Amino acid sequence: MRKKQIFTITSFMIIFTMLLTGCGLTADPASDSGSTDSELTIAGVVFQDDQFMKSMVQGYVDAGAEYGIKILTANTNNDQAKEAELIQTYIAQGVSGIAIAPLSPDASIANLQEAATQGIQVAVTNINLGNVDFLAGGYTSDDKTNGMLVGVNAAAFIADNITGDVNVARVDFDHQLPDQSKARWSGFYEGLDDAGTTYTEVAAVSANLQDDALAKVSDMLTAHPEINVIWACNDGGTIGAAMAVQQAGLAGKVFVFGYDGGDQQTSMILSDNNILIAVVAQDPYGQGYAAVESLALTLLGKDNPDKGKTTIVPGTYLTSTDPDAVNTWRVANGMEAIVSSAPTAAEVDLTIAGVVFQDDQFMKSMVEGFEAAGEKYGIKILSANTNNDQAKEAELIQTYIAQGVNGIAIAPLSPDASIANLKEASDQGIQVAVTNINLGNVDFLAGGYTSDDATNGKLVGTNAAAFIADNITGDVNVARVDFDHQLPDQSKARWSGFYEGLDDAGTTYTEVAAVSANLQDDALAKVSDMLTAHPEINVIWACNDGGTIGAAMAVQQAGLAGKVFVFGYDGGDQQTSMILSDNNILIAVVAQDPYGQGYAAVESLALTLLGKDNPDKGKTTIVPGTYLTSTDPAGVQAWRTANGLD
Fold it and tell me: Which terminus of the chain is more solvent-facing, meaning fewer CB atoms within 10 Å of its CB: N or C?
């Protein structure tokens, strides 16, 4: 089990060690950064003194505390000879294990293999050696993939925010670890290329530490005033580059993208200076913790699933366009959330209408998203419900035009009639954002947010096929609860996706009945009748919130628990409570994020109305679904907690 909790005593021990060592990580090989009564001792070695490596050391120390193992910390300071000397010292001291971020896949590994032949267990971090028999475990990011992740997202930002030539400067660390550095920057450029971005690399410097990067980037900006994008390949380079842009007075003109997350980087992202736009965050703490954990498991004679192989620890994209996610990452990594100094619109009395089309859990959650974003930005929210009535929707929009609201966030009923009315509102100077519908890229929208119905349906179908194979013997007779009568295109996308998932998995089934019912009570009545008329039904697929709840209730009332299995669409309190019950009726759902859609719609309107950068302007953003199943109750509980449910 990997723990990321930072206890006060451990924190004092780490700080005390840093004070003793001057730079925090340059302790003598015999220095003790975690005294215990255990006879086991592990050396935890990094190669420089920056936030990334400090976080890795903390992972070493915390895992040592968890397993009662003494940790000795040291820093090679990018010196291959010192690394070799340290390893030989540890061999002579007879340490039990070495957890290390090596400098070289050749020289370093040869020395570590020698340690292994002397009976010392070895685990490595921050390097990909593939599968190596003598290792207790290896943990690293994939540098090229992480670089490409930033490049792809940077391309979207560039398209929305830069007019004219795109002139890129690079801050690498080719002088230090050339293979790793080149993998990162080549991945970034591949991301730009794949997105079709036209750009020129006008300058490059090599600087892995913050102060060096600050000086070199400052000089580079002076020599190349045409630079408007900087890509920095590591922790120090990213921080130094952002500081150089700040000092040069180029905020909002030169945009920095970087590699590695940390307190400084995320604080910069969350500031309002519009310099450091995004980073890909590795997990140095997790790498360090896992390395010591794999050593501990091996030394204690326990099963170590990572023995002899390298495990890729994926990166996380953190961006100024999603401050909530950045703060979530900070809290998860032991840092405090930074309260946003978001602009408030109270002084100018901005009003946004938030419109949904029915009264169910899904739409109630969307309204909560509208209201939460309105509260954040100081904007008054007027909520309304069209009750699936196209004429009422048109009337509401005309009313809002007459009232002169500043914006409309709406879940429209139709991609034709609804949009024509909303375009009229836009022509009158009212900003518009849509939810729960995919209109593609539409210039007049402040933003669009929706799930992909067919993809989400297929996700359930694929997983349902596996459940069916394990739990149903004989004929598979499926009944469908759709909402074709209400929103036929959306409904058909969902149920066709579900059946495609079954088909692709090779499931043989028969659809024996179908009803159309989007509300809970209607679905309960119609499914009850359907179960009476078709007693052979053993699987039900329900395409929306009300249909799912009503179908599960009908199975319960019919006494068919454990005989008829329901799969549905939309997450919520009722659905997840049913999944977590022991009645074996509602097996799984795909959960959309109506709260997130509502919040994002109002936020895009707020940013536009307040004259701030709105990266979602004119396009539709797909909000992915989450599969929640009775076979993973912990995952369901995690989703409930994340969505404000007990």
Answer: N
Query: CA dist 578 to 113, 457, 573, Å?
Result: 54, 19, 9
- How far is 319 from 461, CA to CA, in rounded Å? 33
Cβ atoms of 535 and 560 within 8 Å: the answer is no
46 token code pair: 């990094």
Q: What is the pTM of this model?
A: 0.43
Radius of gyration of the chain measured on its C-alpha atoms: 28
Q: Is 102 exposed, middle or buried (0-12, 13-18, 19+ CB in 10 A)?
A: buried
Task: Check if the beta carbon of residue 353 is closer than 8 Å to that of residue 400.
Answer: yes
* Pairing state between β 510-516 and 477-482: parallel
346 DSSP 8-state letter: G
What mean pLDDT comes out for the span 342-351?
61
Residues whose CB falls within 8 Å of the CB of residue 251, separated by 6 or more in sequence, listed in order: 245, 273, 274, 275
Tokens of 538: 């053993």
What is the DSSP secondary structure assignment for residue 348, as one 8-state letter?
G
Instruction: Name, in order, each residue with C-beta under 8 angstroms of 151's C-beta and a sequence gap of 6 or more.
Output: 187, 188, 189, 190, 191, 192, 193, 194, 195, 231
Task: Count Cβ neighbours within 10 Å for each residue of 482-519 and write b for 16 or more, e otherwise.
Answer: bbbebbeebbbbbbebbbbbbeeeebebeebbebbbbb
Q: Residue 157: enclosing H or E segment and its boundaries?
A: helix 143-161
Angle at 517 (CA atoms; ends 511, 523), nearest 5 degrees = 90
User: How many Cα neighbours within 13 Å face the side chain of 242?
Assistant: 26
Contact 120, 110 (CB under 8 A): no
Can you give the pLDDT at residue 565? 98
Which of the 8 DSSP states describes residue 347? G
Tokens 């539709």 correspond to: 620
Do 217 and 193 form a contact (C-beta atoms < 8 A)?
no
Is the separation of the CB atoms in 466 and 645 below 8 Å? no
pLDDT tens readout for residues 194-240: 999 999 999 999 999 888 999 999 999 999 999 999 999 998 999 99
* Angle, in degrees to the nearest 10, between helices 51-67 and 263-270: 120
For 451-517, the DSSP string reads --HHHHHHHHHHHHHHHHHHH--S--EEEEEE-TTT-HHHHHHHHHHHHHHHHHTT---EEEEEEE-
Show Cβ contacts of residue 81 under 8 Å, excluding neighbours closer than 6 positions: none
Q: How much is the pLDDT for 50?
A: 76
- Write down the residue that tokens 């293979």 correspond to: 179
Of the given ranges (37-46, 521-530, 547-556, 637-646), which has the lowest mean pLDDT? 637-646
- Tell me the two tokens of residue 32: 């003790």
Q: pLDDT over 70 for what percent of the chain?
A: 92
Looking up tokens 């052979």 gives: 536
Spatial distance between the Cα atoms of 449 and 431, rounded to a whole number of angstroms = 15
pLDDT on residue 15: 32
In terms of residues, how long is the chain?
646
More confident residue, 385 or 346: 385
Question: What is the structure's pLDDT at 348?
Answer: 57
Task: Name the residue with tokens 């935890």.
Answer: 44
